[in-house]
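Researcher: Structure for this, please.
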Amino acid sequence: MIVGIDVGTQSLKVVITDSNLVVLGQATTAYKPSFPQPGWAEQDPSLWENALAPTINCALEAAKLNPSNIAAIGIGGQLDGCIRVDREGNPLHACLIWMDRRALDQIKNLPSEEVHARTGVILDPSHPAAKILWLKDNFGDDDGTLYHVPVSYLVHRLTGNAVMDHAHASTYMLYSLEDRNFDPVLLDFFNIREHELPGIADADDVAGVLTDQGAALTCLPKGIPVAVGTGDDFSTSLGAGVVSPGILTCVLGTAEVVGAVHSIKVIDNERMVETHAYVGDKFFIENPGWLSGGALEWFRETFRILDFREIDALAESAQPGSMGLTFLPALSGSMAPEWIPSARGCFYGLTPSHGNAHMARAVLEGTAFAMRDVIERLNRMNVETRSIMLLGGGAKSRTWAKIRADLTGLPLDLPKITDTAPIGSAMLAAVATGIQPDLISAAKCVGDISERILPDRGLKSVFDEAYNKYRRLFKCLRPMFNLS
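Model: Predicted structure, token format:
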């Protein structure tokens, strides 16, 4: 049996699967990030560590299994976090998670065009290299320090080995897509030494086995192999069986991640999407996400709405287009149609005729407008998108799903299991340990579809008008975003 783990922003999820990746049991432990200042977002790594054993135990109980049944472990999780650790892997500071953009000053004089050309990623304070600079500026440049992302941090804690996969490495702003390694020129730009970073291996390699410490943290037997693993943008698509081009994956978690697999390296000269390494020597062309599920949670708490089902019910009671009300989904900066870290969200078009229902629908539509931004850019880059696979917790909302099909004119698939990130982690562990022969074979075991939603062509003009209004609003507000 296999343990698949997803280290999310708001929870740690575990699945137990059999050798054919059928889920036998699952469990979740919730926690929260902290926001010490505007633009800052942190998480204590002890939250993840403390969640491991109880969540694994609950999943084992659900599967009616015990620890001795486990043959492999895979870990995936949130991208773009940065954790400063000592050489033994002990954390020296809270993790600066993906939402954190405090490192703007550290990168303002770096050559953005050269970074983009070499890495395929956009020079942005959300990426780990920028956060490393901030940590060095504020805590000193100690040559004995190592800088992890969340997944490699946990792999290090469980196995004693500091290693991450190519996809993770490609998010740092230090990785050459051409050479598949850290780029010496970029390391110099950021004043980072290669030995301050984890090593690089394939996601479906074995990183090591559970040490005494790893066994204590997981309550599993010492010696179980642990896969290198990958980031959740990639493990989520993997867990849905997406290993080849044609399917656009839209992951509705705290952030909304939109991307597609592509066979060749292409780099976006408009800098809306990034190019990352993916399994099987392919590439994942994606926008790494804006606050989407997080925007719904903000709306729910602010307007004292009971739960997400009530948001759906409110949105259903309003007409498409939200009666002219537009929501700009830039609560933590804009990622589409442009990357502007200083951008901020808003409602525009409010009148006395608008109520909670129109605002609820506007939030659902506004986040979907940003998804359409990405799809249209991918199409211009000749990245194939024949259909949409909706994943993550937000995929449980059929209202949100239908909005996206109608808005884009593409068929949209809802899988039987929507939280596929821990399944993707389990796939990597299965291949790493020989339980499955390769990822192509493993992908055939997962990704069953529960429903296909076809677009309502009669709503095309309504959604085109609403989308164009959103684009005009962004253009008009853009001068405000760059104000200090």
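Researcher: Any notable elements?
Model: Residues 356-380 form the longest helix (25 residues). The chain is about 35% helix and 20% strand.
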